[in-house]
Amino acid sequence: MAPFLLFSFEDIFLSKVHISCNCYYTNYTKYLTEPQGSHMNTFQLSSSSRSLTYLFFLTLALSIPSTTQAAQANLLQQESKEQSEGLTSALCAPTHYDEQVELKYVNDGDTITLKDGRLVRMIGIDTPEIDFQYPELSQPYAKEARHFLQKYLQPGQVLNLYFDQKRLDPYGHTLAYVYTEKGEHLQEILLSHGFAKTRVYQNDYFWSCLNQVELTARDKKLGLWSHPDYRAKTVDELGRSDRNRWGEVMGVVTGYERKGQYLWLILDEKFYVGIPRAESGKFSNILNLNLLESRVIVRGSLYYSYKKWQLISSHPSQISLQNRP
User: Fold this and answer.
1) Measuring CA to CA, which residue among 81, 104, 97 is closest to residue 178?
2) Tens digit of pLDDT for each residue in 93-115?
3) Are 111 and 121 a contacting pair, CB within 8 Å?
4) Which of 43, 60, 101, 309 could form a disulfide bond with 32, CB atoms 3.0-4.6 angstroms apart?
5) C-alpha to C-alpha distance for 192 and 211, rounded to whole angstroms
6) HEC secondary structure over 54-88
7) SS3 state at 201
8) pLDDT tens-digit profile of 139-196?
């Protein structure tokens, strides 16, 4: 432990000085006489040892600034590390937060209300819908998703928001990725426990990361993925009730077709997934793969036209490899 020096260099050149310190420097005790009854070890210098003592304390004093600076540097480094760990404890972590807010209450699995009255819709996920008028008509796992989020968060809790390209939806709701003060990403947590599915509307900064979290939960059949309503259908299982509805279809890629403004992926020789040729650049990671004979899951609005099922994919998040390497 470094001693606390209660003297200036000017005092050393003058007559007697008093120093309060923890006495670890026993090699110098022969030059010092110790008064009795003091709580701290207090020493008085004799005039004959003034030069040697001056050198000792000068060396000691000069070492303190560098020691203090080193300690401050270590403290700053530790604080920086803790802040970095706070931001990166999530897989889908931002480099900064855009706003700190306070929670008022949880509306449903993917929507919260803030203390200032704003309603925040979580970007990149979709949880089952609650029918507040007729709760018994709510989708499976809708209540469970809401209950899970209510248990995870507390009213008055401080949260951090990170925005994407678009900050408001058509209804004026705030769109954000939501994090706790510890850096936990609420979207990831809901997906990893099987209480949400990925869904890209326009904001897609973390879509690939969130998609991997969902696929892991799906493989483990966690939460809603254990329910038959959320299982992707085969082409042969599609029926009239699936028309013009958002759905998921699984199958094997059996061919390609370029026709009109679309590049078509053909599943099981009878389901067509259209990729706009003008936007094919967004699908480079998918189209660069040899998808023939690969099992995939596609999601989107399902149509039945010209005696065949079709789906138009506007974003690569709508096509996932079922058996990933």
Assistant:
1) 97
2) 999 999 999 999 999 999 999 99
3) yes
4) 43
5) 10
6) HHHHHHHHHHHHHHHHHHHHHHHHHHHHHHHHHHH
7) coil
8) 999 999 999 999 999 999 999 999 999 999 999 999 999 999 999 999 999 999 999 9
Contacts of 142 (CB under 8 A, 6+ apart): 108, 109, 127, 128, 129, 130, 131
What distances in angstroms separate CA 42 from CA 15, 213, 241, one per listed residue? Answer: 16, 64, 91
Both structure tokens of 214: 């969902």
Rg (CA), the chain: 33
Question: Which amino acid, one-letter code, is at 282?
Answer: K
Measured at the CA of 265, the angle between CA 284 and CA 208, to 5 degrees, comes to: 40
The amino acid that residue 19 corresponds to is: I
| Residue 247 backbone phi and psi in degrees, to 5 | -155, 175
* Lookup: tokens for 129: 């819908």
Tokens of 46: 């004799």
pTM of the model: 0.71
Confidence of residue 72 (pLDDT cuts 50, 70, 90): low
Q: Where are the alpha helices (DSSP H) in 193-308?
A: 207-219, 284-287
